[in-house]
Inverse folding.
């Protein structure tokens, strides 16, 4: 039985650059089912990141329809939209984007703080996550003391702690060596098996191969 | 969440050492300044509010109608009003007389040591008005026969540390009378709080004057303090009293009365030249204003640096938003951080304030009875105030930084308009900051030049090397004392006179018709002295002659002027006029009698300043009088002989007046004492001006440090492309020079206006010169420029390879 997580209907994103209107995403039609692992591929500037950001509701389509879990995102108010993405979406970045001032433990804990999760519950959840990613020993270190791969692990742990339905990963292994990349992709595959829907943007064919579906983008269009 | 925010704030404070140091130094100094000044002002406003019957105690003031709609207010009133008030008005519970006096005490009559003390000379009814706490003895019970002396605890411990003093007799050595007065010690009381205009170390309780109120409107004046029955409408009562008094004297009087609440006396006694313990409301406001400005400068530093630094934290905020923070949570985080700075600054400032209290007390000249620390109420109000300031200060940076779109902040893309607004505000604040620094600096210069001007102004007499003995009774030995004094080598001349410089315009006052303005009255002051007075004072003769020793008529022995109309006799005593007086009276010819003044001018001298330069000249007439019963003495001393001369005077005094206290001052000290308030204001301004300049400078230092840090890559690229160090320094300095220039344009007119206004209090004053304004402006410019240049040179000489590699 198939379950639609989100669907895009002629979704378009244009920006004004000077007097020119530039189309970043051009009439995208896309259905994402629960449990899919999608790899977005395409050269630089093809619109991968913009599509991820729009799906992640950090950015918005300028035209067309976007439905997430049956809710019409395109007609929602900003406030409800951010409520929606905070509830259901986790982000993983190429540059990890950990908070330098916080320890590993605190970085993972922060999303729970913003959700006002109770202290005892928080502790249990963070401990689980540290355990699962095998980074218990590093919980009091600061990001700068970790390798890139370890930082990305923390980034993923932080994205997962809120129990999202969808993970959006923008070049998650772009800054990593091949061994670390492999580990991260294995982890994604594992998470996907456990039921998390994943959309990743990547340049790498081998990374894309971990996905269940590959979508190629060129000049803002699905090809 | 809040715990987490505090932890974060603490880490952030520790991480950015330079920023934190600048912010904390500024905030601590600003808060310290405010705490100190607020405490001093609170103390000033707390005067005489500690008495349990404070609402019922009033000082009786007299208004004397001088004609021309001019009236003189005095803190004294008829002694006879005391029985009149107590006998005729049921609203009045008690009336007492209180004078603050200096007394000189010997423990035993044969002692040579004299102890000076400040006391309240009063009567038994004082116990009804003020709640002095009795520690031992039964001082409320007046013991007849002698003056009763009640010591405060500190004075008792100082004079008689381990003695039971109740019942002991000590002796007061008068400076006026001739015989020592025995004082019977009847009790010890707790110290009188220092925040009363009746500040003193002892009470001298007399039997109390019993003078009746005379219908003929004469008698003696005293200071009456009235205790009303609780609930009396004092305004209505003063009307009632005035009506009653007018009736009593038969319908016509120039005297009218008003009641001043005791808690108002300290700050509203500017009319009263005879009391020393009085405050000045406008000085308080000036102090408060300047302290608030300093705190404001510190807050501006904080805002500017926070904003500048927040640009480096945009990424962090973007991440936080993406992982689920909403704007409110981000704002809270940054507000908590701002609050932390204020909390830390307060925690440093409060104990520091506690430590510097002695210095503040030294500065204001008395103990600080009330301060921000003295009640929990004040302290919590203080904290609430700091909290409000912190929230106001922290709000702008917090709102600014939380407003960026998360995607843009992650990419380091910031909307140009947002940055523009931020820079505009930042620059505006820098301008305000420097404007304040310039205004305060100009004030320092003006106050200082005015004081220099006052101190160097030719007073019309020579105030240097001139001694003045306080008025005393000569017991017929005035002439012989005078002779002994003039025989001292080093004394060039001496004069018995009823006036001393700075003590009013003369010894007596006469109201005559104003020849320049018919129908109006003019007050003419009389100084009576012996023939040596003009020479001793060192006044300059313009025309006519001074008194002649050989002419017995120049200084008759009799009472010089007949004041009482009934005693009027044709008495054309010779007199010397000041130039100002001669002009006012339209006197051109010598030896022509002025009938109204019953005098015959023989000479005109250059006008001299009898009072503080705050006041203009007054018409003054000098008349001769030899061998007075009571008078002061002025002694002209040769330069460099002062110590021998004063020693000799003391010796002669002891021989001739063994039981009398010699109260003597140098006239230049007396002159200086008139400007104590201005002196204090000057030191205050100098200190706060340095503080505001320092804070403004470190603020700019922080801003430049921040912007060179942010633009380090740009500097590197520019250098690689061939930019010189100079061009980079110019690049960074240009903006700040512009800002200081704008600040100068804004500040100078304000400074000019404010200082001119202040100067208007002085009849003799400097004008605000452009040079002073420009000097202040250039000092500020130089300080700002130095700060910017030093900081930008540091950035510019760094190796570009290094700065480019840091990316």
């Amino acid at each position: 039985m198939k379950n639609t997580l989100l669907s895009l209907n002629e979704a378009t994103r244009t920006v004004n650059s000077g007097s020119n209107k530039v189309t970043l995403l051009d009439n995208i039609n896309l259905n994402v089912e629960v449990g899919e692992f999608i790899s977005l591929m395409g050269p630089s500037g093809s619109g991968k990141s913009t599509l991820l950001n729009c799906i992640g509701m950090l950015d918005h389509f300028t035209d067309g329809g976007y439905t997430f879990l049956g809710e019409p995102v395109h007609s929602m108010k900003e406030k409800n939209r951010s409520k929606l993405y905070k509830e259901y979406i986790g982000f993983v970045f190429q540059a990890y984007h950990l908070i330098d001032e916080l320890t590993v433990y605190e970085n993972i804990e922060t999303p729970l703080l913003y959700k006002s999760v109770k202290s005892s519950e928080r502790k249990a959840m963070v401990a689980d996550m540290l355990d699962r990613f095998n980074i218990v020993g590093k919980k009091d270190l600061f990001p700068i003391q970790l390798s890139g791969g370890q930082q990305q692990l923390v980034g993923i742990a932080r994205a997962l702690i809120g129990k999202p339905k969808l993970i959006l990963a923008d070049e998650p292994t772009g800054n990593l060596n091949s061994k670390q990349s492999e580990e991260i992709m294995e982890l994604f595959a594992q998470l996907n098996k456990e039921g998390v829907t994943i959309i990743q943007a990547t340049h790498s064919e081998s990374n894309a191969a971990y996905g269940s579906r590959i979508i190629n983008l060129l000049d803002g269009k699905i090809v | 969440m809040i715990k987490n925010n505090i932890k974060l704030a603490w880490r952030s404070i520790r991480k950015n050492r330079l920023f934190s140091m600048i912010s904390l130094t500024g905030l601590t100094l600003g808060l310290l300044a405010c705490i100190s000044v607020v405490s001093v002002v609170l103390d000033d406003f707390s005067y005489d509010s500690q008495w349990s019957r404070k609402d019922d105690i009033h000082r009786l003031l007299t208004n004397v109608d001088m004609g021309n709609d001019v009236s003189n207010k005095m803190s004294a009133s008829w002694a006879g009003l005391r029985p009149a008030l107590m006998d005729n008005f049921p609203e009045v519970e008690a009336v007492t007389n209180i004078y603050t006096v200096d007394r000189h005490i010997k423990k035993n009559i044969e002692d040579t040591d004299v102890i000076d003390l400040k006391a309240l000379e009063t009567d038994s009814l004082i116990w009804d008005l003020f709640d002095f706490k009795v520690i031992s003895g039964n001082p409320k019970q007046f013991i007849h026969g002698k003056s009763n002396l009640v010591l405060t605890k500190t004075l008792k411990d100082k004079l008689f540390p381990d003695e039971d003093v109740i019942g002991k007799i000590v002796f007061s050595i008068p400076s006026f009378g001739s015989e020592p007065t025995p004082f019977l010690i009847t009790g010890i009381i707790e110290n009188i709080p220092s925040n009363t205009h009746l500040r003193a170390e002892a009470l001298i309780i007399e039997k109390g004057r019993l003078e009746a109120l005379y219908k003929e409107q004469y008698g003696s004046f005293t200071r009456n303090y009235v205790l009303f029955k609780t609930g009396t409408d004092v305004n209505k009562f003063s009307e009632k009293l005035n009506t009653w008094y007018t009736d009593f004297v038969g319908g016509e009087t120039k005297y009218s009365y008003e009641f001043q609440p005791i808690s108002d006396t300290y700050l509203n006694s500017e009319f009263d030249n005879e009391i020393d313990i009085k405050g000045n409301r406008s000085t308080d406001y000036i102090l408060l204003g300047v302290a608030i400005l300093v705190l404001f400068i510190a807050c501006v530093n904080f805002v500017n640096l926070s904003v500048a630094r927040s640009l480096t934290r945009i990424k962090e905020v973007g991440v936080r938003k993406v992982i689920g923070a909403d704007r409110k949570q981000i704002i809270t985080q940054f507000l908590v951080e701002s609050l932390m700075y204020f909390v830390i600054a307060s925690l440093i400032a409060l104990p520091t304030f506690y430590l510097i209290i002695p210095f503040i007390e030294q500065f204001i000249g008395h103990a600080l009875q009330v301060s921000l620390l003295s009640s929990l109420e004040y302290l919590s109000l203080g904290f609430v105030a700091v909290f409000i300031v912190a929230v106001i200060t922290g709000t702008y940076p917090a709102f600014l930084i939380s407003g960026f779109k998360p995607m843009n902040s992650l990419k380091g893309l910031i909307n140009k308009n947002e940055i523009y607004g931020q820079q505009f505000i930042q620059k505006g604040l820098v301008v305000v900051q420097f404007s304040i620094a310039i205004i305060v600096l100009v004030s320092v210069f003006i106050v200082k030049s005015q004081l220099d001007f006052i101190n160097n102004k030719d007073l019309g007499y020579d105030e240097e090397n001139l001694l003045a003995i306080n008025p005393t009774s000569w017991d017929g030995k005035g002439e012989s004392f005078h002779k002994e004094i003039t025989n001292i080598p080093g004394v060039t001349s001496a004069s018995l006179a009823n006036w001393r410089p700075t003590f009013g315009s003369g010894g007596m006052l006469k109201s005559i018709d104003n020849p320049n303005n018919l129908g109006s009255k003019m007050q003419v002051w009389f100084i009576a002295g012996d023939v040596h007075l003009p020479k001793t004072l060192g006044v300059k003769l313009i025309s006519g002659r001074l008194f002649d020793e050989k002419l017995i008529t120049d200084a008759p022995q009799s009472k010089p002027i007949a004041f009482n109309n009934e005693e009027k006799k044709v008495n054309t005593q010779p007199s010397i006029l000041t130039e100002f007086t001669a002009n006012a009276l339209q006197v051109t010819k010598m030896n022509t009698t002025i009938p109204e003044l019953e005098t015959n001018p023989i000479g005109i001298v250059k006008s001299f300043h009898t009072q503080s330069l705050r006041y203009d000249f007054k018409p003054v007439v000098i008349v001769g009088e030899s061998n007075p019963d009571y008078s002061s003495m002025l002694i002209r001393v040769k330069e460099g002989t002062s110590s021998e001369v004063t020693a000799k005077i003391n010796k002669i005094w002891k021989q001739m007046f063994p039981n009398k206290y010699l109260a003597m001052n140098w006239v230049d000290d007396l002159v200086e004492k008139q400007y104590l308030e201005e002196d204090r204001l000057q030191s205050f301004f100098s200190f706060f001006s340095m503080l505001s300049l320092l804070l403004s400078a470190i603020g700019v230092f922080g801003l430049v440090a921040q912007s060179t840090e942010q633009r380090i890559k740009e500097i590197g690229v520019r250098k690689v492309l061939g930019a010189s160090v100079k061009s980079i320094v110019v690049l960074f300095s240009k903006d700040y020079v512009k800002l200081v220039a704008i600040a100068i344009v804004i500040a100078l007119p304000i400074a000019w206006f404010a200082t001119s206004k202040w100067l208007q209090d002085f009849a003799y004053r400097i004008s605000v010169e452009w040079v002073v304004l420009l000097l202040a402006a250039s000092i500020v410019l130089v300080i700002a420029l130095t700060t910017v240049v030093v900081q930008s040179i540091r950035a510019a000489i760094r190796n570009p390879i290094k700065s480019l590699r840091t990316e």
